[in-house]
Automatic annotation (TrEMBL):
Keyword Magnesium: no
UniProt-recorded name of the protein: GNAT family N-acetyltransferase
Organism whose genome encodes this protein: Nonomuraea typhae
Binding sites annotated in the UniProt record for acetyl-CoA: 80-82, 88-93, 116-117
Residues at the active site: 121, 408
Length: 408
């Protein structure tokens, strides 16, 4: 069978959202559904139809994302779902292929997503491009190193996050360019960040906030939720979950972390942070930080010729790359990548390749995570010229490591 695919009209939103709800096993509250609808770009939705029934869906957020050395338009893929009754019929493949063709037609060179299941998206050319540490810290053992940054001019102020939204937005806009994978937040993204109705709390209490500021203004903020608990002996055993901590400088960052780690009645703090988060260096006893690794952002290079020159490189490189791509055939050829200080070019060539790789490998390296050597050792790409993989991996690496920080 074939399933016609097209964008939905706004009137079809209830059927579209019902597919998501069924596939994810989630029943959103009406206010969450309305918030979600308000953020939907209906011309960037796609639905696969079985007669009058919507059987599968996906959508895109039009985003501006930080990449090494700059920023570029990125298709933020979201809402990928197929009804359980219609699995194994090729609907997902048809949706993903159509979506990538549409992204290419719009001129976006890169797509990105958060994967609900990490086994899925490599089939469509996405590579794991960023990682996250889920950390747990016991507050009684959370002392910082003696030389941790400190500014006596800085102070903390307890705030209600919604009441200082302008301060939060301004601060975030000033730091978003510092790490690849971060992306600009529009009004709807901020609505989601600050959402604090009962369905948004997931068993935690109200969203709380701290500002780190001096006479010149706000230099950082923390958003978090808490759970008040006592053990059987009446000893405090509260938990605090950091939603995000953003800061313009190391002293503000350190002060905000102390603000959550020193919270009265709290014995455990949890957070999701980049793999190279400064917090890991601040702790005097780093073994007290318990961390679990997970994949975070996945990236798809949709247009090799446009994407590779759109970022900066950490070292010069001049190499011929043979790209394998059976979903976006315009990429499947040999490309000469030449990059130096401040400029890069990528042109089609017929020369013998220095290395051959699947397009997913380029996606995994695009934001600077630098796992090409691992893929070579795993036998997942081919090196024809000795040292060419190391040279490309070095050139595409970046510090700080990529991390998006907010699921879309």
């Amino acid at each position: 069978m074939t399933y016609p695919i097209r964008p939905i009209a706004e009137a079809e939103w209830p059927a579209f959202s019902a597919v998501l709800s069924e596939a994810f096993g989630w029943t959103p509250a009406p206010l969450q559904t309305e918030r979600w609808k308000a953020h939907t770009e209906f011309d960037r939705t796609l639905a696969a139809f079985d007669g009058d029934t919507i059987a599968g869906v996906t959508a895109v957020f039009s985003m501006t994302m930080t990449v090494p050395g700059g920023a570029l338009p990125v298709a933020g893929v979201t809402s990928v779902s197929v009804l359980p009754s219609h699995r194994r019929r090729g609907i997902l493949s048809s949706l993903m292929r159509r979506q990538l063709a549409d992204v290419h037609e719009r001129g976006e060179a890169v797509a990105a997503l958060y994967a609900s299941e990490s086994a899925i998206y490599g089939r469509y050319g996405y590579g794991k491009a960023a990682s996250e540490l889920g950390v747990t810290i016991t507050t009684s053992a959370s002392a910082f190193v003696k030389n941790a940054p400190h500014d006596p001019e800085l102070r903390l102020r307890v705030v209600t996050p919604a009441e200082v939204r302008q301060d939060l937005e301004k601060l975030f806009a000033g730091v978003v360019a510092e790490r690849p994978g971060r992306y600009a937040r529009d009004e709807q993204f901020w609505n989601a960040v600050l959402a604090d109705e009962e369905p948004d709390r997931d068993g935690w209490n109200a969203l709380r906030g701290l500002l780190a500021e001096d006479a010149s203004g706000v230099r950082g903020y923390a958003l978090f939720r808490m759970k008040s608990r006592w053990d059987d002996d009446g000893i405090p055993a509260g938990e605090l979950r950091v939603q995000e901590i953003e800061a313009r400088d190391p002293a503000a960052y350190a002060l905000l972390w102390r603000g959550v780690l020193d919270r009265d009645l709290v014995t455990k703090v949890t957070a999701g942070v980049p793999v190279d988060a400064p917090l890991t260096a601040l702790l005097a006893n780093p073994r007290q930080l318990r961390a679990g690794w997970s994949d975070e952002l996945w990236v798809r290079v949709v247009d090799v010729e446009k994407a590779l020159p759109a970022r900066s490189y950490a070292a010069p490189v001049d190499t011929v790359i043979e790209v394998e791509d059976d979903v976006c055939p315009w990429n499947a050829r040999r490309w000469r990548l030449t990059a130096g200080a401040g400029s890069a070019s990528c042109t089609p060539v017929d020369a013998a390749p220095d290395l051959t790789l699947p397009v997913s490998a380029l996606g995994s390296a695009y934001l600077g995570d630098g796992e090409l050597g691992t893929l070579l050792d795993a036998g997942l790409l081919k090196e024809h010229t000795p040292g060419s993989v190391r040279a490309l991996a070095t050139a595409m690496s970046w510090s700080p490591k990529p991390w998006a920080g907010l699921v879309f």
